[in-house]
Amino acid sequence: MKNYTYLLLLIVFISFSFSENLGFEIYNEKGKKVKYDKMIKELNEADIILFGELHNNPISHWMQLEVSESMLDRNPVFGAEMFEADNQVLLTEYMEGLISAQNFEDQMRLWKNNETDYQPLVELAKENHRPFIATNVPRRYASIVFRSGIQGLDSVSDEAKKWMAPLPFDIDMELPGYKSMAEMGMGHGGDNIVQSQALKDATMAYFILQNRNKGEVFIHFNGTYHSNNFEGIYHYLMEADPTLKIMTISSVEQEDVDSLEAENENLSNFILVINERMTKTY
């Protein structure tokens, strides 16, 4: 992990050495460039932060760690799409030092890029004695919905239903993101794809709300498509509690980071624009 960190720092250093615009820029939703400190100042006012990442982009992951460190004074609770809710006991046991790193790695169904991209976030939380929540629905239940629709969950046990948003829940098929997803399916399971996505979004929102503490900030890491355009997880959070102050960050890639492309405007409160030539973590 140390070698990876040094390599990433070298990449960032080289990016800034050649040109301040070679690596990445931060924009607000209106397309204006924003300094990192300005973004952190605004994020500090949030109850919940949804940090949308590109899963294989090192700058997304580096920025997640930077933001997390900058927010430690808010006593953050962390959560992530990458950890499934039925593994919460394992995650908590590791955070509390009850099980070894080997046990954690062997049993957690970790993503293939966990060591480089997500474990640093877990370790930051562990070192600072902050909770880390496994928010995503177990993938086996999302697969049921993908095959059989949301009604397929009628057959799962009450025990299994503890690891997902309470059923039934509303799925707004007219949300632009969901509608676009259904259209891309072209009739081949389009509705099931949307329902599977909605199950993930609703479940992540549910476990965020179940574990947030008043006066503290909940920082959640998820694929950027789960919170782009103030939809997905954001939609379910606001449906549950419209008084919440939620801030979102999106990650996008562009050939030129010196201006925000029109299609990326209004994606979120802050848009992390990364040079598309940036190396990938897998």
Topology:
Layout: H1 2-18, E1 24-28, H2 36-43, E2 48-53, H3 58-70, E3 77-84, H4 88-95, H5 101-107, H6 114-117, H7 119-127, E4 132-136, H8 139-148, H9 176-185, H10 190-211, E5 218-223, H11 233-240, E6 246-254, E7 270-275
Parallel strand pairs: 2-5, 2-6, 3-4, 3-5, 6-7
Antiparallel strand pairs: 1-7
Helix pairs in contact: 8-10, 9-10, 10-11
Brief digest:
With 282 residues, the protein is of the alpha/beta class. The chain contains 11 helices and 7 strands. Helix 9 packs antiparallel against helix 10 (190-211).
CATH topology: Rossmann fold
Structural class: alpha/beta
CATH class: Alpha Beta
Instruction: Round the Cα radius of gyration to an integer and report it.
Output: 19 Å
What value does the average pLDDT take?
92
Strand residues, percent = 15-25%
User: Largest sheet, described in full?
Assistant: 7 strands, mixed
Instruction: Name the poorly predicted regions.
Output: 13-19
Helix content: 40-55%
Overall strand count? 7
How many separate domains?
A: 1
Element-level helix/strand string: HEHEHEHHHHEHHHEHEE
Describe this structure in words.
- Residues 13-19 have low confidence and may be disordered.
- The protein has a single domain (25-275), classed as 3-Layer(aba) Sandwich (Rossmann fold).
- 41% of the residues lie in helices and 16% in strands.
- The two termini are 15 Å apart.
- It has helices spanning 2-18, 36-43, 58-70, 88-95, 101-107, 114-117, 119-127, 139-148, 176-185, 190-211, 233-240, and strands at residues 24-28, 48-53, 77-84, 132-136, 218-223, 246-254, 270-275.
- The radius of gyration is 19 Å and the shape is globular.
- The protein is α/β, with parallel strands linked by helices and 282 residues long.
- It is built from eleven helices and seven strands.
- Strands 1-7-6-2-5-3-4 form a seven-stranded mixed sheet, with helices on both faces.
- Helix 8 (139-148) runs antiparallel to helix 10 (190-211), helix 9 packs antiparallel against helix 10 and helix 10 packs across helix 11 (233-240).
